[in-house]
Amino acid sequence: xxxxxxxxxxxxxxxxxxxxxxxxxxxxxxxxxxxxxxxxxxxxxxxxxxxxxxxxxxxxxxxxxxxxxxxxxxxxxxxxxxxxxxxxxxxxxxxxxxxxxxxxxxxxx
Length: 109
Fold this sequence. Notes:
This protein is an all-alpha fold. It contains 4 helices and no strands. The longest helix is centred in the N-terminal third of the chain and has 28 residues, at 9-36. The radius of gyration is 16 Å and the shape is elongated.
C-alpha cells in the first residue's frame, strides 16, 4: 500500500478545471457532429462553443498559476498547456500529474 500526499488546493483547482475543459470539449464535439451530421442542428455548438472558449482560457490561466504555485518543471507546464489543444487530453494528463505527485502537497509547503 502506498501513501499519497493529499492534493494541494491549487492541485485540486487544476483537476477541476481540467475536467471542465474536457467536458466542454466533448460537448463541442457532439455539437459539431450534430451540426455537420444528419441533423444539421447548431444548438449545441451555440451552447458549448462559448463555454469551451471560456473553459480553455480559464484552464490556461489556472495551469500557469498552478505551475508557479506548485513549482512544476518546465516540461510539466508545457505538457499541461499543450494538453488543452487536442480533445479530452486534459483528463489523462491530470490523472498522470496526480500519480507523479505534481498536484500534491509536498513536504515543506
